[in-house]
Amino acid sequence: MYKIIVLVKQVPDTRNVGKDAMKADGTVNRAALPAIFNPEDLNALELALEVKDKYPDTHITLLTMGPVRAAEILREGLYRGADAGVLLTDKAFAGSDTLATSYALSRAVRKIGEFDLIFAGRQAIDGDTAQVGPQVADKLGIPQITYAEDVISLKDKTVQIKRRLERGFEVVEGQLPLLITAHSTAPDCRPRNAKRLMKYKRATTLSERHNVSDDYLSANQKPYLSITEWCAKDVDSDLAQLGLGGSPTKVRQVENIVFQAKESKVLTTDDGDIEWLMQELITNHTIG
Amino acid sequence: MNNVCVYCEIEEGKIQDVSYELLTKGRSLANQLNVKLEALIIGDSLAGMGKEVSKYGVDIVYLADDKRLYPFTTLPHTAIAVGLFKETQPQIVLMGATSIGRDLGPRISSSLTSGLTADCTDLQIGEYEDKKAGKKYENLLYQIRPAFGGNIVATIVNPDNRPQMATVREGVMKKEILTESHKAEVVNIDVNKYLNDADFAVKIIERQIEQSKVNLKGSSIIIAGGYGVGSKENFNLLYDLAHAIGAEVGASRAAVDAGFADKERQIGQTGITVRPKLYIACGISGQIQHIAGMQESAMVISINNDPNAPINKLADYVIQGNLENIIPKMIKYYRKNIIAPCPLRGGPRG
Ligand SMILES: Cc1cc2nc3c(=O)[nH]c(=O)nc-3n(C[C@H](O)[C@H](O)[C@H](O)COP(=O)(O)OP(=O)(O)OC[C@H]3O[C@@H](n4cnc5c(N)ncnc54)[C@H](O)[C@@H]3O)c2cc1C
Ligand SMILES: Nc1ncnc2c1ncn2[C@@H]1O[C@H](COP(=O)(O)O)[C@@H](O)[C@H]1O
Predict the structure, then answer these.
(1) Are both B125 and B177 inside the same structural domain?
(2) Whose atoms come closest to the Cα of B326: which ligand?
(3) Using a 6 Å cutoff on CB, does residue B302 contact ligand 1?
(4) Listed residues B148, B168, B200: the one ending a domain
(5) What is the CB neighbour count within 10 angstroms for residue B337?
(6) CATH architecture of the domain covering A3-246
(7) Structural domain ending residue among the three candidates B200, B231, B258
(8) Which one, out of A66, A68, B156, B175, has a CA that is 20 to 30 A from the CA of B208?
(9) What is the mean pLDDT of each run of 10 residues along chain B (350 residues)?
């Protein structure tokens, strides 16, 4: 049996954002962007679940740092086969860059306790930084294998991974414990399981239970319905390394870019317009 | 001390273009700061590499030469870079936003507790005022990158922690030899000072590097499709036009995410940067992350059914309407007006 932790993040859906995603003033219309399970974190979860398929007494804990609302993806992970969820939430985390985030996550991993494997997504689509996985591995002092698309084998303490590179691939072998980041070419995550959905749909965090008036669901009666919630103090973290203050990178300024509009010639779909354009491009040797 | 250092990447005995591009940028940053430019090369059989990079204006080359150091694995390269940087204290470290740089960079930055900004599209030197702390800083590295949200560009700084680290994608900066005769001091690193057995915990069993099938950077005409193309099938219209006029097909990230085109065709901040003679944007709205990768195109044609699509502002010609109608007509009238056939290029599989 293996003890696995999967790092998951809730992100605004930056894919396929249509015209309504931007407001007229050029800022993001957050309401038009649903919050989703970061896509490559689902690949990470699937790689963990495949280990569990092979070694059924494997235990998978999902860990996320974010606002109270991020518990949504922990439930989503429980529906798909994870065993437990931990939400790390605190005002002290606000404004964290990747280094402060990894520090907080590494403290939470320590608190979760012993582990054999940590899976993370390669990158989160809100920033595409791909930094948090390797930085967590560094803080924990364990090796990393990035861009995994397949766990080729796992036996005792040895794992073989196929890694996707920008041109080609590598097969590497490492000794547990280590951290693996999942690439989008890893298998898609299995869908929700109907039975698990029924079981976990009322699983909540402490903050969520504070927010609902009818408190008929006592987590004490059904401990599996409790999603663990920790704050900065719970994971014994050094406040100086958290949040904005603990982030070496600062945003100096944010600029709205106004493009120098070119004198553009506007054409219609009429045959005459298109023929004129193609002739123009051929005549001035742009094409042909 | 406090120099600018570029981590140079090696593949099959050759230093990668992205490293040369960063050395060129690094040279100009070092000039502004009045410091030296350093290159760190970690690998196997590095004889002659010092000379290779010195042309780009490098003053000091650190060579970590050991047969265990190629191909790249994370921990040994981290140990050497971290060990060296603790001694040499560079103020700026630059690396490629490649599968190597994005694996190594965060590891180094965590070890040294220094900030790291990914996928910068520009690097400059400037000042910074922390009003809250009442502190002023001079000569910081401005790490400039498009930010999520509208046409917004953010400037990131690392006021207190060193080194200031940034990754940049291939093609974003220009590669330029300074002078053939520029000489660098070569320093051979004693790797055993930094390495121990535990650093070789991850072993490479098999490795296959393929040649890229898509040559966007080398293409003078690019036809790029966005989410507005609508489907993978509709992308065939773009391949057809590319065949006809001798072009390569690119894509926006939304089109790649939707599965219409392969990732290696993605143009933009987190894809490829291109500077073609002609860029035809089909069904692309023109978000800043996309523009970052194509704004230096000499001529832009936008095909879009939304007259207010932001990309139209960059366009020399805007064809308003549905691309399904327009592209077949472009092929038809191109064929009608040209006599000589073009070399076949740009098929969906290369
Ligand atoms: C960290 C980060 C990094 C990113 N990196 C990149 C990057 O490298 N490259 C990149 O491209 N994006 C990148 N993006 C995404 C970027 O913000 C946009 O989401 C993306 O570029 C939008 O793609 P699009 O223009 O194809 O889609 P949309 O914005 O959906 O635009 C589709 C366009 O098609 C038009 N259209 C629809 N139907 C038709 C039709 N039948 N005929 C003609 N026109 C039609 C519409 O009017 C619209 O203008 C990144 C985002 C983030 C957060
Ligand atoms: N706040 C977070 N909580 C949990 N995991 C995270 C968080 N941020 C990042 N990660 C993990 O780190 C990966 C890389 O994120 P990033 O460095 O932001 O691109 C993600 O795919 C997640 O697996």
Answers:
(1) yes
(2) 1
(3) no
(4) B200
(5) 15
(6) 3-Layer(aba) Sandwich (3.40)
(7) B200
(8) B175
(9) 95 95 98 98 95 96 98 98 98 97 98 96 96 93 89 92 97 95 96 97 95 89 97 97 96 95 95 96 95 96 96 96 97 85 46
